[in-house]
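Weekly modeling sync, notes
Attendees: AB, CL, MP (scribe)

Item 1: holo prediction request
CL wants a bound-state model with magnesium ion before deciding which constructs to order. AB pointed out that an apo prediction alone won't tell us much about the pocket. Agreed to run with the ligand included and paste results into these notes for async review.

Input as submitted:
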Amino acid sequence: MDDKIETVEVDIRGQVCPATLLVALKHVNEHGSNIRNGSMKLVLKTDNRDATVTIPDSAVNMGYSVNVEKKDNFYSISIGALDAR
Amino acid sequence: MRDSNPDNPSSDSYQRLLAENRELRAKYENTVAYLRKKIDQLLLVMGTLPLKPEELDDSTLIELDPIGIIAGSFGQVLNHLHTTNDSLQIARDEIKAIFDSAGIGILVLDSDMKVVSYNKKQQDLFKAGAEVVTGQKCYSIMCGADEMPSVCTFRRVMKQKRPVHISNWNFNDRLYDVAGTPIFDKHGDVARVVLAYMDITDRKRIEEELSRVNKFEAAGIFAGGIAHDFNNLLTSILGNISLAKTLVSPKDRIAEKLNTAESASLKAKELTHKLLTVAGVAEPQKKNISVAGLIKDTTALTASFSSAVCEYRMQDGLWQISADEAQLRQVIQNIVVNAFESVSDKGVIRIKAENVSVVEGGSLPLVAGHYVKISIEDNGCGISEENLPKIFDPYFTTKGMSSRKGRGLGLAAAFSIVMSHSGFITMDSTVGVGTVCTVYLPAAYKDRDEQTKVGGRALVMDDDEIVREVAGDMLALIGFDVSFALKSDELMKIYMEAAASGKPFDIVIMDVNIPDDGGAEKAISSLRAFNPAARAVVSSGNPKDKIMTNFEEYGFSGALAKPFKMSEITALVKKLSAA
Ligand SMILES: Nc1ncnc2c1ncn2[C@@H]1O[C@H](COP(=O)(O)OP(=O)(O)OP(=O)(O)O)[C@@H](O)[C@H]1O
Ligand SMILES: [Mg+2]
């Protein structure tokens, strides 16, 4: 099942986007229906430490499942559907 | 003249444009500030941190369309809240349904021990007449106390701050398993305590019954083994005593000693008989029986020896039961005798029989189906709580070992018989008030009357009472319904009556010598004349008797030497029924 899920990676590291949260939300909104129906997973790369709190908070409130991982020089925040029932 | 050239910084138009520009810039800044403020508010409402101005310059802010983004996200937040609310509502309904249909009592208390909620089953545990229970202290509506009792599940949960389990909590004469679980608030304090009460009274009782059944199986194997041999030995002893008695004059002192030996052996035989029943050796010979009549005539004899009164309440249309008549009589007899022994002169024994239907999953250890429930109630001395679990044990008695009374086998035999009939027997008692013994026996199926006959009917002719009794007992043990005759004309009368009533005898056993009578020789010729196919066996203490050695010539199908041996009588009877 897992391999059927498309993963879309977006790099929103500092220099490009000044307001990480808004940019992240923009991407989430854009792919919302695909993430929700479980066909897609959105992975955001960020180096903004605050964003590892604000993005998951918002995404959880919006009804997604979120997983944050610390990589070498960035954070990877993956956003997916709530546990498929 | 005024200069209107806008390129001239001192011109009026230039100045006006400057002012307009300033005004516009201020408006723009206000708008951006306003936007930032509102965006931050929205972000806070969404539950996240506000934006930092240094992260986002004003022009990028406008370009990014933050309101559009947040509005989009907000729509999703609301949607998500709706679904969450819906599933919460379902979960709440689910919990409520589980709560109310649970077979256990559930009580929710706050940290002050006040009732927050409870389910239907829990109401049984509240004090009778307790009203508007919510908000009341648990100890007042349940224990009827003014303060928290020293042994209290709630107290323990509050103290230990973790789930607590209490087994065998005795409350209002019933036993409960109690589970107490704390629910914590976000500060980690106990906000609620959920108490679950599971009534285990019936389960405990069934467990006790089961352990008793196991004990019986062990005791039965043991008792059965020795009782059988013992019975054979006693038969031989009794037979020889009766033979010896014929050799001395009744006035002789030896005869007196023989009589004493005989009556002691008889008592021993009675005891073995009970043992055999306890051991389940005597397989029930089942037929359809109407209990009402059987109870009355079994009880009547016992009642006639007592000044206590016996009352009957038999349901009309009582079902028949499928049971061994002799064994059933023994059950009733043993229980009724105990009842009479327990009461004083003003005793009243109430015997009731009624139809009951046992359903699946009830509290009785019985298979679902139709039963006849017999209860025998007395207002006698009662049985102490300590003794109650032991009364069905073989040899348990409180009646002392002197005299005939009190060998402690009465109820053990009753228990064993009822079990072998797939029934159930139980006793309830209160010291000083009385005792009720309740017996359940499976009702017979209406359409089933043909049972495979193992034994049959036997007629024994002997002038010696003990021989009659011994032969009767032995035949009964292998499944015969036995009748007796003292002389040959009596034998013929009984035999012919039985044939006429459609219940002929399958076998006749007769003594060679009957004083003042033709004995076996006379009896066999009358019997053959009436029924040439009659099956008869001759018996004698003298194996060399001419009829014994030439029994076939005289018309007998077999010969049986006295004293009877169980093995011989069984072998002969088997051979004859196979023929
Ligand atoms: N109706 C009753 N009222 C009071 N006690 C009883 C009653 N029935 C039985 N018991 C108690 O149970 C014990 C066991 O009864 P059980 O019939 O097995 O033996 P028993 O009566 O002592 O002896 P046995 O039946 O051999 O004469 C009795 O000794 C008595 O203490
Ligand atoms: Mg008794």
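Recorded for review: Residues 201-247 of chain B form the longest helix (47 residues).
Action items: CL to compare against the apo run; MP to circulate these notes.
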